[in-house]
């Protein structure tokens, strides 16, 4: 436990209490010991009693910095779970976080460029265009070709603030693993470790530029998604220069309606973009909150998304991708037994699970969702059902899927806002069916084989030797397994014998004690005590050594 994490823990607690967040929890949910602990922190008073609860939460998260702002952004996407006041305040965390001074921004940009801004850019605007969790964005024009660009510069000291929070999260995860009954299932330290990797990569804007260029290239001819061009020659670790886009924020429903946007197509394209990135490209934008998504003003009837901020991206292993696709398809086909089998095969749930009970639980969760438009699905209830089933069947959290699950939440929340009649499943099904066909059909297998043909040809001469070696290895392995089994059985036999003798010795000693209470049974008592000693010693000596297993 480091001093840093303790200090940060205190800061988080103090800020939350000074904004009176403790008062937002209904009294009946506060146990007595927590109420007493709160009373002990008497000097941390609510300093903003007049503010609404949504504003208090926003200001707390904003004060605490990047990691907390990101959490607020995530909450803000679930308008179906928030009241208007909370939704309005939390959505400001997407791009209206208080900016830092333009002088500091200039200084940092020039430090990164190694020359005055005016050498490379015209019309640099000192008033930031937007300011978000980790950075601030200023507009300018490239001197070389007069292109409108934006300069995204990291916030001062953002690395330190993120480090402190990650350390605190690691500490809490370790405590959680010791104290929570569900710890082994929640994989807290692994999830935090994954988050650490992700967030630190986001702080390297050069990586963000590379991610953006990769997604831009894979959607080069797409009508669904446009990613602005990155000027890598001017980009550095703390500075990203890219084409300035002029779209309508995806949450500005009034402006989208005014330009006659085809909302149905827009929502369907959101689903298409998500599945294309996950399954075709295996490289997905994993920070798709509304502040990072715009809609082009050019062809409202054939609407195109514009995506920015590719700092957080995800990809899956081939096996996870395949299991996921099969899971989705089984869900679309109402084949709940298949979902249960897939969970067991992939190891996401124990092989000892009662498959019939598991299937019944999955049916209960999935049936209310099947074939329904988003508007008819209660997301909150689905989430509660999912948590309940996960706990009941001891489903282990898969850290590698957390980013994807977060992205799916964003996509679902977005679809709900844009076009609540969207049938997410009907839109996704043909896409996944085609993808599966491309993975497992005869043609796909032939293609994969032909791709690997030179490699296979190369290894062909080594084959007989490899086959022979493997057979020998297999036989040795079987012998070893048999030996291990024999040793284990012999260990168990010795252990039972030793327990029996020690037990017998115990019984005899009790009998000896009882007999010794009377003078006329003193001799049998001595005999029994001696026998007990012999059996005890024998039992002790026959105890097998631990390393004999
Ligand atoms: N290429 C661009 N053209 C126009 N505006 C942009 C561009 N890039 C960013 N912005 C504006 O700047 C805001 C913040 O940018 P960005 O999301 O990249 O920053 P961030 O600090 O990484 O944000 P987040 O909190 O989402 O991680 C965006 O919401 C958008 O309003």
Automatic annotation (TrEMBL):
Keywords: ATP-binding, Cell inner membrane, Cell membrane, Kinase, Membrane, Nucleotide-binding, Transferase, Transmembrane, Transmembrane helix, Ubiquinone biosynthesis. Pathway: Cofactor biosynthesis; ubiquinone biosynthesis [regulation]. SUPFAM superfamilies: Protein kinase-like (PK-like). InterPro entries: ABC1_dom (IPR004147), Kinase-like_dom_sf (IPR011009), RCK_C (IPR006037), UbiB (IPR010232), UbiB_bact (IPR045308), UbiB_kinase (IPR050154). Pfam families: ABC1. CDD domains: UbiB (cd13972). PROSITE patterns: RCK_C. The chain crosses the membrane at residues 499-517, 523-541. Residues 345-427 form the RCK C-terminal domain. One of its GO terms (molecular function) is monoatomic cation transmembrane transporter activity. GO terms for biological process: potassium ion transport; ubiquinone biosynthetic process. Belongs to the protein kinase superfamily. ADCK protein kinase family. This is RCK C-terminal domain-containing protein. It comes from Paraferrimonas haliotis.
């Amino acid at each position: 436990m480091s001093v840093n994490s303790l200090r940060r823990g205190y800061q988080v607690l103090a800020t939350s209490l000074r904004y009176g967040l403790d008062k937002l929890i209904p009294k009946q949910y506060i146990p007595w010991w927590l109420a007493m602990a709160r009373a002990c922190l008497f000097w941390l008073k609510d300093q903003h009693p007049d503010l609404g609860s949504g504003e208090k939460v926003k200001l707390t998260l904003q004060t605490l910095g990047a990691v907390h702002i990101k959490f607020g952004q995530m909450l803000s996407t679930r308008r179906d779970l928030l009241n208007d006041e909370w939704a309005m305040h939390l959505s400001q965390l997407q791009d209206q976080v208080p900016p830092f001074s333009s002088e500091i921004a200039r200084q940092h940009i020039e430090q990164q460029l190694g020359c005055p801004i005016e050498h490379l850019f015209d019309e640099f605007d000192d008033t930031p265009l937007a300011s978000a969790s980790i950075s601030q964005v200023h507009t300018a024009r490239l001197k070389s070709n007069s292109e409108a660009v934006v300069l995204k510069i990291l916030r001062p000291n953002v690395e330190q603030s993120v480090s402190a929070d990650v350390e605190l999260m690691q500490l809490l995860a370790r405590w959680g693993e010791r104290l929570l009954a569900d710890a082994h299932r929640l994989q807290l330290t692994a999830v935090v470790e994954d988050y650490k990797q992700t967030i630190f990569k986001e702080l390297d804007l050069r990586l963000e530029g590379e991610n953006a260029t990769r997604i831009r290239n894979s959607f080069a001819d797409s009508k669904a998604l446009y990613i602005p061009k990155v000027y890598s020659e001017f980009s550095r670790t703390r500075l990203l220069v890219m084409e300035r886009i002029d779209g309508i924020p995806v949450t500005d429903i009034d402006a989208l309606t005014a330009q006659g946007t085809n909302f149905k197509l827009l929502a369907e394209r959101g689903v298409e973009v998500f599945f294309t990135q996950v399954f075709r490209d295996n490289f997905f934008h994993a920070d798709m909150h509304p502040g990072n998504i715009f809609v082009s003003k050019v062809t409202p009837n054939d609407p195109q998304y514009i995506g920015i901020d590719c700092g957080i991206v995800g990809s899956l292993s081939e096996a996870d991708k395949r299991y996921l696709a099969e899971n989705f398809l089984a869900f679309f086909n109402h084949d709940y037994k298949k979902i249960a089998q897939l969970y067991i095969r992939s190891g996401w749930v124990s092989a000892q699970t009662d498959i019939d009970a598991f299937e019944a639980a999955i049916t209960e969760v999935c049936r209310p969702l099947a074939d329904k438009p988003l508007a008819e699905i209660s997301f909150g209830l689905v989430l509660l059902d999912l948590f309940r089933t996960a706990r009941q069947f001891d489903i282990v959290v898969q850290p590698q899927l957390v980013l994807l699950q977060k992205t799916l939440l964003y996509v679902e929340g977005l679809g709900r806002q844009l076009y609540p009649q969207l049938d997410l499943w009907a839109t996704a099904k043909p896409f996944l069916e085609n993808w599966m066909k491309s993975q497992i059909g005869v043609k796909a297998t032939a293609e994969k084989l032909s791709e690997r043909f030179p490699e296979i040809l190369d290894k062909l001469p080594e084959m007989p030797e490899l086959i022979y070696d493997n057979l020998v290895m297999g036989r040795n392995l079987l012998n070893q397994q048999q030996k291990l089994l024999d040793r284990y059985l012999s260990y168990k036999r010795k252990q039972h014998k030793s327990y029996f003798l020690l037990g017998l010795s115990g019984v005899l000693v009790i009998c000896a004690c009882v007999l010794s209470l009377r003078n006329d049974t003193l001799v049998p008592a001595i005999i029994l005590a001696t026998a007990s000693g012999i059996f005890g010693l024998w039992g002790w000596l026959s105890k097998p050594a631990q390393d004999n297993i």
